[in-house]
Amino acid sequence: MPATQSKTIAIVGATGVVGRTIETVLEERGFAVDNYVPVATGRRGQKETTAFGKTWTLTAPDDVDFSGIDVAFFSAGASVSEMLVPKAVDRGCRVVDNTTAFRMDRNVPLVVPEINATRVGGDAMLVACPNCTAIVLVMSLAPLLAAVPVERVVMTSFQSVSGAGREALCELDEQIEADAGDKAPQVEVLPRQIAFNCVPVIGDALESGYTKEEEKIVEESQKILDEPELKIVPTAVRVPTRVGHAIAVNVELKEPLAPGRAIELWKSAPGVTYSDEVPTPLDAAGSDMVIAGRVRRDPTRPNAITYWVVGDNLRKGAATNSVQIAELFL
Ligand SMILES: NC(=O)c1ccc[n+]([C@@H]2O[C@H](COP(=O)([O-])OP(=O)(O)OC[C@H]3O[C@@H](n4cnc5c(N)ncnc54)[C@H](OP(=O)(O)O)[C@@H]3O)[C@@H](O)[C@H]2O)c1
Prior knowledge:
It is globular, with a radius of gyration of 20 Å. The two termini are 13 Å apart. The strands form 3 sheets. The protein has a 6-stranded mixed beta sheet. Strands 2-1-5-6-7 form a 5-stranded parallel beta sheet, sandwiched between helices. It has helices spanning 17-28, 78-90, 113-116, 132-147, 166-180, 212-225, 259-268, 281-284, 315-329, and strands at residues 7-12, 33-39, 48-51, 54-57, 71-74, 94-97, 126-128, 150-159, 231-238, 245-253, 272-274, 290-297, 304-311. The protein contains 9 helices and 13 strands. It has 330 residues and is of the alpha/beta class. Helix 1 (17-28) packs across helix 9. It folds into 2 domains: 7-130 and 318-329, NAD(P)-binding Rossmann-like Domain (Rossmann fold); 134-312, Dihydrodipicolinate Reductase, domain 2 (2-Layer Sandwich). Helix 3 links the parallel strand 6 (94-97) and strand 7. It binds NADP nicotinamide-adenine-dinucleotide phosphate. NADP nicotinamide-adenine-dinucleotide phosphate binds at residues 12-19, 39-44, 61, 75-77, 80, 98-99, 132, 162-163, 165-167, 313-314, 317-318. NADP nicotinamide-adenine-dinucleotide phosphate is lined by residues 12-19, 39-44, 61, 75-77, 80, 98-99, 132, 162-163, 165-167, 313-314, 317-318.
C-alpha cells in the first residue's frame, strides 16, 4: 500500500463504528499520520481515543479548526456533514464524506476507486463515499457491465446491524440478553426487534412504497456506474448479523453471459473475487474483498444469471473505500 507524506487528519465521528474502522485502515495501509484530530461530541463521557500509537483528546465539533488539516473524513451523519463540510473545504481541507449529505450532488464525485477513480480530479476538495450496500453491489456489477450491457437488476440485500451504527449493535446485544432472561426486548434504535428477526425496513418509507435505503442503492449505483437509466429493483433487509452485508442479485443482460465467464470477470477485477465455497457475511468481515458466489443461470430468462455477493460494510463499504479516496487525493 502507498505510504504517504506525514499528514494531519481529522475524523468527524471518530468514536463510531465507521470512524474507528477508518483509524484501523489508515494504520494498516501505512498512512503517515503525524497529527490527528478526532471529533465527536463526547456525550457518553468518552474524552480520548487511542490510534496511530498515541492517545488523542476528542475535539467537539464546534471547536475544530480545519485550516491545518490535510484530509478530514466525515462519518457523523448527514446533518453534521451539511454543517461542517463547507467550512472544512473553505479552509482548504480535503474532505471524504461518508454520509448521504452530498452523494447525489451533481458537482460532487461519488467514488469507488476500482470503478471510477478518474472522477477524483487534481483539484477535488470534496468526494463522497457511497452507501455500503451500493458499494458491494457495484463492485460485483461493474466487471459484468464492462463485458456485456445490463438490461435489469433485481436484488435483495441482507444488511448487518453495524450498518446502523454503534447504538444498533448495543440494541442487538441487549435484545439477545433480554430474550435469554425472559424479558421483553426494548426497541428504540431500529424500527422493529432485530434479534431473531429480519426487518425489510431500512430508512424512511417513501410514497413509492420503497424505502430511503432502497432509493439510495438505486440512485447511487446509477451514478457510480455512470448508467443513469440502469433498471434496479431493490429490497433492503436488516438481518441480525453484526458485520458484513450480503446481496442476492439477479442480473438480466442484453446478451448471454455464461456463469463461468462471470466467474472469470470477477476473478480478474480488482477488489472483487469469486469463491466456490459459499461466501457468507462472516467470510467477508475483516476483509477488503467483495466476494461473489453461487452464480447460476436463471432458467426463466434467456440472458439472466443469479448470484450472491458479500462485503464488509465497515471496511470496503465505508472505511477502506474512504481511505482509498484519500490516497487518490494525495
Ligand atoms: N455503519 C456503516 O456500515 C456505514 C457505512 C457507510 C456509511 N455510513 C455512514 O457513516 C456515518 C456514521 O455511521 P456509524 O455507523 O459509524 O455511526 P455510529 O457508530 O453511530 O457513530 C456516529 C459517530 O458520530 C459521532 N457524532 C454523532 N453526532 C455528532 C455530532 N453532532 N457532532 C460530531 N460527532 C457526532 C458519534 O460520537 P458521539 O455520539 O460521541 O458524538 C460517533 O462517533 C453515518 O452517516 C452512516 O450513514 C455508515
